[in-house]
């Protein structure tokens, strides 16, 4: 619930910001970690996103944020890739036991700024690449804007009065401030959306594509591939990840899951540029570049959630760029299953 979540975080010492769109959509921003922690339709307190169960009560939230563990609050977060360089400091050891979330990135030290009525979150940080040992100085900036329902002018929308909608636009900028060391070094924005587990990710593609295993052992029966859609059921009791190539992706990925007696659909709409340097790679294939999207099934001590992830082409040495500006939309719907499936067919693929 929106009001309860705000109160719990406030009592736990974590301030929040509320972004309201002209259409009544509400996004809850947690400056700590620069997360969009929740998305709510007009007159609704039901969150479309997953949040950590510790945030259900003040006492557990305080204990969570006072602990030494990674504070994975949930929602929509921004990381920096490639993962091999910035999250596996002992590479070529790629075991999960050595996986480390850089605290200077998440939760980071985000400063909240207000400019012309907009809220900006800015973090300057230093990261060292595990492969080249080079260090880079970066600046990440995040801001929200409205995202109107893309179906609002479509004739069929008038017949869907029982379907709720909420959305926002995410503006993310990465700036290269400097580097040290002689090794090759590139870095790219990486946006990850955490959603309730036991749903189905729907990846829209231009052709019959493929899904690349990054780590873990997904069940082949959970993956279905047709001419213009990759369908991936995310319900397994472990952790595994799949990647999707930039040349195949249309830039729209959805996630459909049961929401009580209704069905929810969250879609991310983002730009894909196969000419750009997509530098995040499967852990065992460090030269295999070109993946723009990923799906990560998590059901372990970290929690039970599904991640819809996308990468932005990298900046840095050899790219000709020292700044990246990315704009994406999140569109979320909730209502009767038949209506929500019809929306998925309109916005993702007729095969959805």
Q: Care to describe what's here?
A:
The protein has 352 residues and is mostly beta strands. 10% of the residues lie in helices and 44% in strands. Strands 5-6-7-8-20-16-15-10-13-12 form a ten-stranded antiparallel sheet, covered by helices on one side. β12 and β13 (229-234) form a beta hairpin. The longest helix has 11 residues, at 337-347. It is globular and about 60 Å long. The protein starts with a helix and ends in a 5-residue tail after the last helix.
Order of helices and strands: HEEEHEHEEEEEEEEEEEEEEEEH
Computed CA radius of gyration, to the nearest angstrom: 19 Å
- What topology, given as strand order, has the largest sheet? 5-6-7-8-20-16-15-10-13-12
Number of helices: 4
Strand content: 35-45%
Secondary-structure content class: mainly beta
Task: Describe the largest sheet.
Answer: 10 strands, antiparallel
Per DSSP E runs of 2 or more residues, the count of β-strands stands at 20
Overall geometric form: globular
Share of helix among residues?
under 10%
What attributes does this structure have?
352 residues; mainly beta; 10-stranded antiparallel sheet; 7-stranded antiparallel sheet; globular
What is the topological layout?
Elements: H1 2-11, E1 17-20, E2 26-30, E3 35-40, H2 58-66, E4 76-81, H3 83-86, E5 111-115, E6 118-128, E7 135-145, E8 164-180, E9 186-196, E10 199-205, E11 212-215, E12 223-225, E13 229-234, E14 239-245, E15 249-259, E16 262-269, E17 291-300, E18 303-311, E19 315-316, E20 323-335, H4 337-347
Antiparallel strand pairs: 1-2, 2-3, 4-9, 5-6, 6-7, 7-8, 8-20, 9-18, 9-19, 10-13, 10-15, 11-14, 12-13, 14-17, 15-16, 16-20, 17-18
């Amino acid at each position: 619930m929106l009001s309860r979540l705000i109160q719990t975080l406030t009592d736990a010492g974590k301030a929040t910001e509320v972004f309201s769109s002209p259409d009544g959509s509400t996004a809850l921003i947690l400056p700590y970690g620069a997360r969009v922690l929740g998305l709510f339709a007009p007159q609704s307190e039901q969150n479309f996103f997953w949040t950590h169960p510790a945030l259900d009560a003040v006492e557990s939230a305080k204990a969570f944020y006072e602990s030494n563990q990674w504070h994975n609050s949930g929602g929509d977060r921004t990381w920096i890739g490639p993962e091999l360089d910035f999250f596996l400091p002992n590479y070529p050891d790629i075991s999960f036991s050595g996986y480390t979330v850089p605290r200077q990135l998440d939760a980071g030290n985000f400063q909240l700024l207000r400019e012309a009525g907009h809220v900006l979150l800015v973090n300057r940080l230093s990261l060292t690449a595990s492969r080249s040992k080079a260090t880079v100085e970066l600046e990440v900036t995040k801001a929200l804007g409205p995202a109107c329902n893309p179906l609002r002018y479509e004739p069929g929308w008038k017949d869907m009065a029982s379907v709720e909608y909420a959305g926002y636009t995410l503006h993310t900028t990465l700036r290269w401030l400097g580097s040290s060391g002689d090794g090759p070094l590139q870095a790219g924005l990486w946006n990850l959306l955490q959603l309730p587990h036991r749903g189905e990710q729907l990846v829209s593609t231009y052709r019959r594509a493929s899904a690349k295993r990054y780590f873990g052992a997904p069940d082949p029966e959970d993956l279905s591939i047709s001419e213009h859609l990759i369908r991936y059921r995310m319900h397994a009791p472990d952790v595994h990840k799949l990647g999707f190539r930039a040349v195949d992706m249309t830039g729209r990925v959805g996630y459909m899951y049961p929401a009580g007696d209704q069905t929810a659909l969250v879609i991310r709409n983002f730009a894909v540029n196969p000419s750009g340097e997509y530098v995040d790679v499967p852990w065992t294939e460090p030269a295999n570049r070109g993946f723009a999207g990923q799906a990560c099934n998590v059901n372990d001590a970290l929690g039970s959630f599904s991640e819809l992830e996308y990468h932005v082409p990298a900046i840095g040495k050899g790219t000709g760029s020292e700044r990246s500006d990315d704009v994406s939309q999140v569109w979320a719907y909730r209502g009767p299953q038949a209506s929500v499936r019809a929306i998925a067919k309109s916005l993702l693929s007729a095969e959805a």
